[in-house]
Design a protein that fits this description.
single chain, 305 residues, alpha/beta, 5-stranded parallel beta sheet, 3-stranded antiparallel beta sheet, globular, binds 2-acetamido-2-deoxy-beta-D-glucopyranose, transferase, signal
């Protein structure tokens, strides 16, 4: 039951349908850059300005990135971009350069920190280097959940998108398993190989710059997990128990922002597909070793099956 609710929640927290694949490298001229003095636009008469993000939520897809950015924006010292910007992973955006990226940022007061989230950054090989070039001291947030649950959630999102467009879809067992073996060619599976992608980030950023948020715990105990985030970002501890309340009908936490209550989604009718127990078992077994490698990499363990 808990797993089902979790699935419902995380599914419904999804961002808009999967964007199309980024364009391949065009080999065109390097994008325009900003001089370091130019990280922010001229301030607006109301005292706000746009600034390059000092924090980026890099992923993972279906990990709970929407919940994380919404909870983070409860903090008065944080200004969050509304949309997924896809600057560092999409060539067509990256070629427009930092001035364009800046133009996508929210208006913030100078003492606020700006954050954007694009879950596809985590699994895109070229992104870490590009972010490092912009700001080697940036703070990165990565929210992860049980890799098996994440694969099922990833499949479910694509499944519903295809269903909506009246396109055909393959049953989950046939994408997960090929010739009796776990299908390594399935992209959603690869996205859950966290250590593979993490290694890439650690080539550019020290471990102290990347805080891993436990997505499974964020759902069950948001305040505790968010307090760790505040600490990592050196934010004044501001979130408290009154920012979160449990909605029994929905079965998860909603947010209270200056007295305004909002829940993150409408969970109607979306559950994980039923997966043959033998396949599920195979999946859990498959992730055992990759998970161990990830724990070793980050020096921390997670409560994954
Ligand atoms: C712009 O960003 C760079 C690197 O992130 C930093 O060293 C510099 O101090 C910033 N400049 C301003 C004016 O904030
Ligand atoms: C300040 O102006 C910007 C640009 O028009 C606007 O987006 C923002 O909401 C304003 N902020 C406040 C606090 O008035
Ligand atoms: C998974 O993705 C990474 C990064 O895109 C790639 O280097 C790796 O070869 C992929 N692994 C498998 C098993 O497909
Ligand atoms: C929680 O924070 C709000 C606003 O920041 C404040 O008004 C309230 O008194 C705090 N509640 C508790 C229980 O500390
Ligand atoms: C709790 O969830 C139910 C069911 O989705 C919803 O109708 C209701 O408005 C929510 N209540 C609060 C206080 O968030």
């Amino acid at each position: 039951m808990a797993a089902l609710l979790l699935g419902l929640l995380l599914f419904a927290l999804q961002s808009p349908p999967l964007p199309s694949r980024p364009l391949a490298d065009g080999g065109s001229s390097p994008p325009p850059t900003l001089s370091p003095a130019d990280n922010a636009t001229a301030s607006h008469p109301n005292g706000t300005l746009q600034q390059l993000p000092q924090i980026i939520i890099i992923g993972v897809r279906k990990g709970g990135t929407r919940a994380l950015i919404e909870m983070l924006s409860l903090h008065g010292a944080v200004a969050a971009a509304q949309n997924e910007v896809h600057f560092f992973d999409w060539e067509s955006h990256f070629q427009k350069g930092l001035p364009w990226y800046l133009s996508q940022m929210p208006y913030a007061f100078p003492e606020q920190l700006t954050v954007e989230k694009t879950p596809a950054y985590f699994t895109s090989g070229k992104v870490p280097k590009r972010i490092h070039q912009m700001n080697p001291n940036i703070k990165l947030l990565l929210i992860l959940r049980d890799p098996t649950e994440r694969v099922l959630s990833d499949y479910t999102q694509v499944f519903y998108n295809r269903l909506q467009k009246h396109k055909s879809y393959q049953p989950i067992e046939s994408v997960l398993v090929k010739d009796g073996e776990i299908n390594l060619g399935y992209k959603a599976l690869n996205r859950s190989l966290y250590y593979v992608h993490m290694q890439n980030w650690l080539q550019y950023f020290p471990p102290e710059s990347i805080h891993v948020v436990d997505g499974d715990r964020l759902i069950k105990d948001p305040l505790h997990e968010m307090q760790k985030v505040e600490k990592f970002l050196n934010l004044e501890p501001q979130l408290n128990a009154s920012n979160f309340y449990f909605n029994k009908t929905k079965g998860f936490y909603c947010l209270r922002d200056h007295g305004r209550e909002r829940c993150l989604h409408d969970s109607k009718g979306r559950a994980h597909p039923h997966v043959a127990p033998a396949v599920l078992q195979k999946l859990y077994q498959f992730f055992h070793e990759p998970n161990r490698k990830f724990f070793e990499l980050v020096g921390r363990t997670f409560d994954w099956k």
